[in-house]
Specification:
This protein is mainly alpha-helical. It has 19 helices and no strands. The termini are close together.
Amino acid sequence: MSESAKTLLKLDRSRAEYQTRLPSKRSLRGLDWLNFFLADVQTGVGPFLAIYLAGYGWNEERVGVALTVGGIAGILAQTPAGALVDQVHRKRTLIAAGVGALALGALLIAFVPTFWSVMSAQVLIGGTSSIFGPAICAVSLGIVGHHLFDARQGRNQSFNSAGNVVAAVSMGLLGYFVSNRSIFFFVAVCTLPTLFALRKIQANEIDYERARGAKEDAGDGNPVGAAVLLQERPLIIFLVCAVMFHFANAAMLPLLGEMLAKGHGRSSMMFMSACVVTTQFVITLIAAWSGRKAASWGRKPLLLIAFGVLPIRAVLYTLTSNTVALVAIQILDGVGAGIFGVVSILVIADLTQGSGRFNITLGAIATAVGIGASLSQTIAGAIVHHFSFNTGFLFLAAIAAAAFGILYFFMPETREKSFLNENP
């Protein structure tokens, strides 16, 4: 049988298997709203934290350390979290535990914004929220299968970004009219609808084998060894590109927030809200489109767009100090993040399909990406502290340009690549 015939047979089996196990509308809607409300919970402990801490007199370097601590906790937890998601059947329970930990960490920051309490909260938040990425991807893949995963991942990102828009507006208004502290109480309140949406997803509709990227007839068989994945050259190249992308991207918005906080007082929270809203609104518009186009165009063309806008964005930050212009530049952030957030998951699913190692691979790559993002916060913060904001942004632009070059010259297309094709 030719390779094309094998591919068609695999697709026919996937379609037939999906048609006989259609997920309920209840589970699909629950997955939609889980992504929406989970974004509300996560947004408050992201870029707003830098402004909150700056309001208590923390300098750029100290804020960078606080953000790095959370990043390191996430780094240490990502790979074990991915492995846990691959092994555990009760994936909804893992998500619920992470949501509860986020709420506890947010309340700790709100009530006791001292150095050690913030560090403790960051460890708690970073360590447990690492469950969300692989768990939601696993639940989605387990419900819809590989055949519809492109569109589902785009839909997940759209709802997540829509939730980020609502959260950013709400938090900006709370920060301006009430206090920066009220944002963290908002985070705790948002855990309630998040858990309600999670309960809507039917546990018996999450296929365990599909959720970990195993072959359909694998039963409870053993997944491929880690050494096999390490021999996948495209996976290693993508890992390098993803680390560099996040190293260049992670510090940009917090640095912009700190720059806006200088001399703007309470209005800086509104500016940051506008930045987040702009980014997330663009992601909401582009994410579903990215999922559809990834199936027809392939993965690499879309990734080149995402990587290409990142150095442009960093350079543009150095060319103006106008608040409206700085907020408008966030459109590019939305384009890059919207495409990368969808397509990067699809690339990993392509390269691990049939291996039974989908979620642990997600976790391992997230670990490496977390290292890059955390180092970005510390290194860029130190550069800004000792030199200037423009120097920090140009440094990040250079890293982003190098990542684009590696992706363009060395990364192959992955849409038709999987362990099912290579190891029938």
